[in-house]
């Protein structure tokens, strides 16, 4: 995964910004690209451990068309928990689970570098989501985010883009319209978080019949987000090739605003001192009719032996705390 380290080096060579959404400040560059040959191994970082369980569960959650965090929370996957709390905060306060004063205190302490109270509130919210289905229906939804756009659910236009993509692949994959987008400009304002990785396209090489997947990402957190996104689209590309009988080709990521949050700079520099290790392989144990039908039990990452995890970078909490 030298390609990732190259992205990280480029981001660290960029310009400072203190005006971005979270208030933490960034250093970064604009418009970069990385390419990964899927035949050489599964594209997951080895210079730090990537949260593989989260990668799998979130990707399958997208593919099922879900937008409520409850099924993720039940599996102890917290990727979207703070976004759901922020998005549904008035409902959460109205429910009596927490008060505005508690939120304000947590924000103040987090800005000073103390995340104990913020983590406690997020944990309390997650527990209520898991235990109380009615509360989850009230405060666990994120609006028409990725799953709704990909599958045409939850108020999004009723177009199942994954189904349309797979129909084209079953015909041989010659179309140049095999595109899945998560950016509906009429619904962006209704989303808990507008899509960062907002579009992807599949291409089948006419001669070699290799499946290639390229995605565009508008906002790219190089330490926490980008490693996750590379692995996620690597998983989707592998599932598509396996399910529809194509050879594996390239995974190509195009990154718009490629940045490192300033509190994460020490972790970035530490990674650059580490030598990448051999890539693992992906074993898909079954073959189903659609990539929407797989579960985490069907997917196994073999031989993943990364460097020890980094000291936990300062959490961003989606800009909430």
Detailed description of the structure:
The chain is an alpha+beta fold and 321 residues long. The protein has two domains: 2-67 and 144-309, 2-Layer Sandwich (Thymidylate Synthase, Chain A), CATH 3.30.572.10; 68-141, no CATH class. The chain has twelve helices and eight strands. It has helices at 2-12, 52-64, 70-74, 81-87, 89-95, 100-111, 116-131, 133-139, 146-151, 161-170, 225-244, 265-272, and strands at 15-17, 26-37, 179-181, 197-204, 210-221, 247-261, 281-284, 299-302. The strands form two sheets. It has a six-stranded mixed sheet with strand order 1-2-6-5-4-3. Strands 7-8 form a two-stranded antiparallel sheet. Strand 1 and strand 2 form a beta hairpin. The longest helix has 20 residues, at 225-244. It is globular and about 65 Å long.
TL;DR?
Helix 2 crosses helix 11 (225-244). The protein folds into two domains: 2-67 and 144-309, Thymidylate Synthase, Chain A, CATH 3.30.572; 68-141, no CATH class.
Number of DSSP helical runs: 12
CATH class of the largest domain: Alpha Beta
- The helix fraction, in percent, is 25-40%
| CATH architecture grouping of the largest domain | 2-Layer Sandwich
Distance between the termini: 32 Å
* Unreliable segments of 5+ consecutive residues: none
Helix and strand pattern: HEEHHHHHHHHHEEEHEHEE
């Amino acid at each position: 995964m030298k390609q990732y380290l190259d992205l990280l080096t480029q981001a660290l060579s960029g310009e400072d910004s203190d005006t971005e959404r979270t208030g933490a400040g960034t250093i970064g560059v604009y418009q970069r690209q990385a390419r990964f040959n899927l035949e050489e191994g599964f594209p997951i970082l080895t210079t730090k451990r990537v949260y593989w369980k989260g990668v799998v569960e979130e990707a399958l959650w997208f593919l099922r068309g879900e937008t409520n965090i409850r099924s993720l929370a039940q599996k102890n996957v917290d990727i979207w928990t703070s976004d759901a709390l922020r998005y549904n905060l008035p409902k959460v306060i109205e429910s009596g689970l927490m008060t505005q004063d508690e939120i304000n205190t947590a924000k103040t302490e987090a800005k000073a570098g103390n995340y104990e109270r913020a983590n406690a509130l997020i944990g309390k919210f997650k527990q209520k989501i898991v235990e109380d289905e009615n509360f989850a229906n009230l405060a666990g939804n994120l609006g028409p985010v990725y799953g709704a756009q990909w599958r045409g659910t939850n108020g999004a236009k009723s177009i199942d883009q994954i189904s349309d993509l797979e129909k084209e692949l079953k015909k041989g994959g010659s179309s140049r319209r095999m595109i899945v987008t998560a950016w509906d400009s009429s619904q962006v304002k209704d989303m808990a978080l507008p899509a960062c990785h907002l579009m992807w396209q599949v291409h089948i090489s006419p001669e070699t019949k290799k499946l290639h997947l390229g995605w565009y990402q508008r906002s790219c957190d190089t330490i926490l987000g980008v490693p996750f996104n590379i692995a996620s689209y690597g998983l989707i590309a592998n599932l598509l090739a396996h399910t529809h009988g194509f050879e594996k080709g390239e995974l190509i990521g195009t990154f718009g605003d490629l940045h490192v949050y300033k509190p994460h700079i020490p972790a970035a520099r530490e990674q650059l001192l580490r030598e990448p290790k051999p890539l693992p392989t992906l074993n898909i144990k079954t073959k189903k009719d659609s990539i929407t039908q797989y579960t985490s039990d069907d997917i196994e990452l073999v031989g993943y032996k990364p460097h020890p995890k980094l000291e936990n970078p300062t959490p961003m909490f989606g800009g909430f705390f």
